[in-house]
């Protein structure tokens, strides 16, 4: 059950009760593509840095180790030793990212595995079956994430097909949740709004899928090449046509600035690889901007990554030491950076929730954006 607790302008402070636990929103979902966060960060670490929900990838887990293996091991939560909610994406993004290895048809998508090249077929029913095997808390509907830019005709045809696929997803999930052997018969289904930067297509699609009374709704096909201004405009124009009493998820976004701007427009679920990926490349998010630990000026810097940070890394290690680890290609350096960045994102969301509750989100956002520009 999803409940909006309070609002500050369009910004929502809400709570999603699931069979696997409660999610306080706005929330950032840490990306564990194959059931783990890249950078040697364990699920115990995720609990320590107050992660609420983990996102895993349907396509990648299907390819390796195989969703049948995960099913036999009791589902992704038991397999990864994670007792909190999990959202699985549908494999639809791979329709976009593996464009050179796939062919789209009405029945679904034919892939060549990025690992060994073997032929894979995934349609709406297959995606739901795989996600049911994974036993995630929230399953995403199978869709196409169209490229940017795309012609109007391509976009309209793609969105119409995504709608037909959504109807098939909803029907198949209902069937799967009724089976005795299903690990999570309470699995939730989120639909995905598409349409690129064509606002009328976006709005019409939002209206159509809102009528289906799904458990949540996502804005997909953004952060794929359009400008930030275009993305914010799409969010602002589309979100009013999605149910306010259901979670709204902006897929694959983004920077702290992106999150603050999108919360202001009514989004309350986010995911992005940035904190982990940038951390592995030596970039630390701080309350004063982003640090590049490979810069020579940090070689003898005995301060923590962020002097205002309470994460386990900043309570213990210096910039100089972490820089040394990164230069030496020591795994501990990656682990420190990813842990800090994920803590920063989770704490950012906590601050956002508090600001909305106190009715001062606009003031908080302004100060936060100004402070994060200090290092530039």
How would you describe the overall organization of this protein?
This protein has 376 residues and is an alpha/beta fold. The protein has two domains: 2-272, Queuine tRNA-ribosyltransferase-like (TIM Barrel, Alpha-Beta Barrel), CATH 3.20.20.105; 279-371, no CATH class. Helices cover 40% and strands 19% of the residues. It is built from 14 helices and 16 strands. The strands form four sheets. The chain has an eight-stranded parallel β-barrel with strand order 4-5-6-10-11-12-13-14, surrounded by four helices. Strands 1-2-3 form a three-stranded antiparallel beta sheet. A three-stranded antiparallel beta sheet has the order 7-8-9. Helix 12 (319-327) crosses helix 13 (331-357). The longest helix is centred in the C-terminal third of the chain and has 27 residues, at 331-357. The radius of gyration is 20 Å and the shape is globular. It starts with a strand and ends in a 5-residue tail after the last helix.
Q: What is the correct CATH architecture of the largest domain?
A: Alpha-Beta Barrel
- The CATH topology of the largest domain, please? TIM Barrel
Task: Give me the count of strands.
Answer: 16
Q: What is the N-to-C order of secondary-structure elements (H for helix, E for strand)? A: EEEEHEHHHEHEEEHEHEHEHEHEHEEHHH
Secondary-structure-based class equals: alpha/beta
Total domain units? 2
Biggest beta-sheet profile: 8 strands, parallel, barrel
Strand content: 15-25%
Count of DSSP H/I helices:
14
Percent helix, as a range, is: 40-55%
Query: Could you give the order of strands across the largest sheet?
Result: 4-5-6-10-11-12-13-14
Radius of gyration: 20 Å
Mean pLDDT across all amino acids: 95
State the distance separating the first and last CA atoms. Answer: 43 Å
Q: Class of the largest domain, according to the CATH hierarchy?
A: Alpha Beta
Q: What is the 3D shape?
A: globular
- Identify the CATH homologous superfamily of the largest domain: Queuine tRNA-ribosyltransferase-like
Q: What is the oligomeric state here?
A: single chain
Low-confidence spans: none
Domain tRNA-guanine(15) transglycosylase-like: 10-373
Pfam family, one: TGT
EC number: 2.4.2.29
InterPro entries: ArchSynthase1/Queuine_TRR, TGT, TGT-like_sf, tRNA_ribo_trans-like
């Amino acid at each position: 059950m999803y409940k909006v607790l309070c609002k500050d302008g369009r910004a929502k402070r809400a709570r999603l009760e699931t069979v696997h636990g409660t999610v306080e929103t706005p929330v950032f979902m840490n990306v564990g593509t194959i059931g783990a966060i890249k950078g040697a960060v364990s699920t115990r670490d995720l609990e320590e840095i107050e992660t609420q929900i983990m996102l895993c990838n349907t396509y990648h887990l299907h390819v390796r180790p195989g969703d049948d293996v995960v099913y036999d091991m009791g589902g992704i939560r038991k397999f990864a030793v994670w007792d909190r909610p999990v959202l699985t994406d549908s494999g639809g993004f791979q329709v976009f990212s593996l464009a050179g290895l796939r062919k789209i048809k009405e029945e679904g998508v034919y892939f060549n595995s990025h690992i060994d090249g073997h032929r894979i077929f995934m349609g709406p029913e297959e995606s739901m079956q795989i996600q049911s095997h994974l036993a995630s808390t929230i399953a995403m509907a199978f869709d196409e994430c169209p490229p940017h830019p795309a012609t109007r005709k391509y976009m309209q045809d793609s969105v119409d097909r995504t709608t037909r696929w959504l109807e098939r997803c909803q029907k198949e999930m209902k069937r799967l949740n009724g089976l005795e052997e299903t690990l999570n018969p309470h699995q939730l289904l989120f639909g995905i709004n598409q349409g690129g930067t064509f606002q009328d297509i976006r709005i019409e699609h939002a209206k159509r899928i809102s009528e289906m009374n799904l458990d949540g709704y996502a804005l997909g096909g953004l952060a794929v090449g359009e400008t930030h201004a275009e993305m914010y405009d799409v969010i602002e124009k589309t979100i009013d046509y999605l149910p306010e009493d259901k979670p709204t998820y902006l897929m694959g976004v983004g920077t702290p600035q992106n999150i603050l701007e999108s919360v202001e427009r009514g989004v309350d679920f986010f995911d992005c690889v940035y904190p982990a990926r940038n951390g592995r490349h030596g970039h630390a998010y701080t309350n004063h901007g982003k640090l590049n630990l490979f810069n020579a000026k940090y070689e003898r810097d005995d301060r923590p990554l962020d002097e205002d940070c309470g994460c386990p890394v900043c309570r213990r290690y210096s910039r100089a030491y972490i820089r040394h680890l990164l230069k030496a290609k020591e795994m501990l350096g990656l682990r420190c950076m990813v842990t800090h960045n994920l803590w920063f994102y989770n704490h950012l969301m906590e601050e956002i929730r508090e600001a909305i509750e106190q009715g001062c989100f606009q003031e908080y956002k302004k100060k936060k954006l100004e402070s994060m520009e200090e290092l530039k």
